[in-house]
Amino acid sequence: MTKTVLTFGLISGFVLCLMMVLTIPLHDKIGYDKAMIVGYTTMILAALLVYFGVRSYRDNVNGGIVSFGRAFWVGLMISLIAALMYVVTWQVGKDRIAPGYMEKYQAEMIQKAKASGKPQAEIDKEIAETQKWAEMAKNPLMSMAFTFLEPLPVALLASLISAAMLRRKRREGELVATT
What we know:
The protein is an all-alpha fold. The chain has 8 helices and no strands.
């Protein structure tokens, strides 16, 4: 299991990290909303490797059978490796690939709030919330936690779907090849 998890986790993580490094410099040009779409699309593509990793485990390591729980566990481990790579890439590279990212993001969110046409009290509340999040993100542990939470929903969903689709029980009388 370890080889399969590491192989597919590292490939998935590489996809996430490469796309982060390539697309973050474009955020100013395409806007943060479109950049978020690109980012989550990349996370979905990287999560496809969870499916292929679970299938590889089932077919090549576990003799063609796998329970839902084991398949979910394999998918989750692949996802965690990829997410950890994503976090490390952001923490190491944020000042190089995205200098002033949080300040620029915060400025765009404030501008968006002001242009929304909402009452001033709601705008002030959104600005305060944005400033609170920006302040929390200065703490490296909070920044790592926020970054880890970005791909987590996609990874959990990919693990659940893969486990449901790929589970296969041993049929009565069926022999399982052991290696």
